[in-house]
Amino acid sequence: MSEKIKINSSHWVIIIALLAAAFACYLLIEPYVNSIIMAFIISLLMFPIHEWLERKIPKKKNIVSLLSCVILTFIIVIPLLAVFAAIVQQGSLFSQNTYQWVTHGGIQTLFAHPLVVKALSFVNNYLPFDNIEPQAIAQKVGEFATSFGSKLVGISAKILGDATSFLMDFFLMLFVLFFLLRDHDKIISVVRHILPLSRSQEDKLLTEIEQVSKSAVMGSFLTAIAQGIAGGLGMWIAGFPGLFWGTMMGFASFIPVVGTALIWIPAATYLFLTGDTTWAIFLTVYCVAIVGSIDNLLRPLLMQGSAGMNTLMIFFSLLGGIQLFGLIGLIYGPLIFAITIVLFNIYDEEFKDFLNQQDKS
């Protein structure tokens, strides 16, 4: 049993002052917290490469950390720029094709389909909504198709306008990452020294934070990339712009429950109503069997072994994380759950005798 520490009034003054100072420090860095946390998580992912570079260039910590940051920049920035350019090009082409389809009677042909006629008749007769007129919908679709290109250009301009903010956040993350990689051993030693836990408890807590951080990134972002690639391939085979819609499916995969169905169901419906029944069936079967299975199999597989978190816990940690923190909640949610479970296990070990005695009473 570890020696008990007697806390007197002066200790409480120090603790309260330290907490107040820590809160003030948090307020100072609060605008940059996401960049700092992302730097920490990426440092865990980059560490195997960093260690390999350290073995190749020993006793040159500054140079090795700088090389690791340069490698990360090439891994992230260059592919993002290439994908962004391709998305703008394919999105503009898609808007032009949609405009041509609408102006050449495609929308009228669609509303003349027997199933669409029956569906509109049912809605207008039995549901408590205003009557849906095909001509009004056709007009709205035409207006949207006409303005889609300019809207896409406007969105692109806004994204480029926000590039300065993105670059500032990115280079701030790189700046923090440099020191995390260079001073990794020192930082871990300081954290271990400050934590009032035994060495085994520290090992358990730090290991779990590392595992959950990695699994959250791998489970969410790699699943989105895999679904985007698979979905884009299916959309391309079915005749749609593959890169554009594959990227949209990758983003849609972050949405709980609905996911990529937000993209492929309207696409398959469009193919079916325009007479491409074979391609509609293909896209539906492909997305359910291939794209859907990636989410059902890959995400839980990549997030296994995190503090005993089961599928239900993972689901609510992702859902709640997005609700509270936005996209970054895909990492924060599982991390908060996992740390809570580890702390609960430490509590269970620390008060084991008392809890057992309570069970017997």
Automatic annotation (TrEMBL):
GO terms for cellular component: membrane. The keyword Membrane applies. Keywords: Membrane, Transmembrane, Transmembrane helix. The chain crosses the membrane at residues 12-29, 35-53, 65-88, 159-181, 216-237, 243-265, 277-294, 314-347. Coiled coil: none annotated. It comes from the Bacteria. InterPro entries: AI-2E-like. Pfam families: AI-2E_transport. PROSITE patterns: PROKAR_LIPOPROTEIN. Belongs to the autoinducer-2 exporter (AI-2E) (TC 2.A.86) family. PANTHER family: TRANSMEMBRANE PROTEIN, TRANSMEMBRANE PROTEIN 245. This is Permease. The lineage of its organism: Bacteria, Pseudomonadati, Pseudomonadota, Gammaproteobacteria, Vibrionales.
